[in-house]
């Protein structure tokens, strides 16, 4: 598929996806979702891609769903458009590859929902965050009502969703919405450094961390512990990654993953 909105490149095993529709502050339309779904399918089984970074072109990360595309939708079409985005952002969590949001500017509405679908978020000091849907008489439709409370807790989630307040990067860091804040010119370098650090770890261990943590959120603690024990055990055994990592430590050498 030819991309009109996404710019993609792979640098040393790290895929960088830039959402580029700056004239509309990268607002999310159907074309974007089709391109992003195509990209996710294309990397799903590609073991040479060790991490994915998603960022935005210009002064926005993403300023929300495309209001111009949404305005004429019927009730049924509104639900369909909501499910389209839910599916795409859930697919980031289903990938074994780590997905990192590099938030360069406005992350509003569907833009914040996109960022929350990623595994974690690094922001520039210029980033702004909010769920302004109630300003439009809407609610979030790409799982923002679900992911925000899971990430920041009930009080902060309901405050942001009800007030539509736009917060800066420092407040986003304080409530745990982002994991790190850096100067704008250092953003991509820092996120690339984090991606490369992860890429150098045991690949199966990194995949399993993502799988066990994400699946665990859907389970009782007991079920989560069972899943953890199963996956922990699977890294033992001759020739398995855990054996190699532990031997390498004891032999004071680098592991051969
Ligand atoms: N959709 C479409 N176009 C947009 C959007 C958007 N979300 N945001 C900005 N644009 C366009 C503007 O219309 C403008 O276009 P033009 O130059 O043709 O007039 C251009 O981008 C530049 O924007 P501004 O001139 O407004 O730039 P400012 O720097 O003055 O303001 C803001 C930046 C504060 C970010 C402002 O653009 C703004 O408030 N944008 C809308 C933010 C918003 O409300 N986002 C939430 C949208 S709703 C949503 O995301 C719901 C998700 C779930 C959907 C579920 C499916 C049914």
At a glance:
With 257 residues, the chain is α/β, with parallel strands linked by helices. It has two domains: 194 residues, 2-enoyl-CoA Hydratase, Chain A, domain 1 (Alpha-Beta Complex); 48 residues. Helix content is 47%, strand content 16%.
Tell me what the structure shows.
The chain has 257 residues and is an alpha/beta fold. The protein has two domains: 6-199, 2-enoyl-CoA Hydratase, Chain A, domain 1 (Alpha-Beta Complex); 203-250. The chain contains eleven helices and ten strands. It has helices at residues 30-43, 67-70, 75-94, 110-117, 144-152, 154-163, 169-174, 187-199, 203-216, 221-233, 241-250; strands spanning 6-11, 14-19, 51-56, 60-62, 99-103, 106-108, 120-124, 128-130, 167-168, 180-182. It has a six-stranded mixed β-sheet with strand order 1-2-3-5-7-10, sandwiched between helices. The protein has a four-stranded mixed β-sheet with strand order 4-6-8-9. Strand 1 (6-11) and strand 2 form a beta hairpin. Helix 1 (30-43) runs parallel beside helix 3, helix 3 runs parallel beside helix 4 and helix 5 crosses helix 6 (154-163). The protein is globular. The structure holds octanoyl-coenzyme A.
């Amino acid at each position: 598929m030819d991309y009109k909105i996404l710019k993609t490149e792979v640098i040393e095993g790290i895929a960088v996806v830039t959402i580029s529709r700056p004239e509309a502050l990268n607002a999310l339309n159907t074309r974007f979702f089709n391109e992003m779904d195509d990209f996710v399918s294309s990397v799903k089984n590609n073991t040479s891609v060790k991490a994915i970074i998603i960022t935005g072109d210009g002064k926005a990360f993403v300023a929300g769903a495309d209001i111009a595309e949404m305005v004429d939708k019927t009730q049924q079409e509104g639900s369909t458009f909501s499910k389209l985005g839910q599916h795409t952002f859930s697919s980031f969590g289903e990938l074994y590859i780590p997905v990192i949001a590099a938030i360069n500017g406005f992350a509003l509405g569907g833009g914040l929902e996109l960022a929350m679908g990623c595994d974690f978020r690094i922001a520039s000091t210029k980033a702004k965050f909010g769920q302004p849907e109630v300003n439009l008489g809407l609610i979030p439709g790409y799982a923002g009502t679900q992911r925000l409370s899971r990430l920041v807790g009930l009080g902060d989630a309901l405050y942001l969703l009800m007030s539509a307040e736009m917060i800066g990067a420092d407040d986003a860091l304080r409530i745990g919405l982002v994991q790190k804040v850096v100067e704008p010119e250092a953003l991509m370098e820092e996120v690339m450094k984090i991606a490369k650090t992860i890429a150098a770890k045991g690949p199966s261990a990194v995949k399993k961390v993502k799988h066990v943590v994400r699946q665990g959120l859907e389970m009782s603690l007991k079920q989560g512990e069972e899943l953890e024990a199963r996956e922990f055990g699977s890294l033992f055994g001759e020739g398995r990654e855990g054996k190699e990592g532990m031997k390498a430590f004891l032999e004071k050498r680098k592991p051969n993953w």
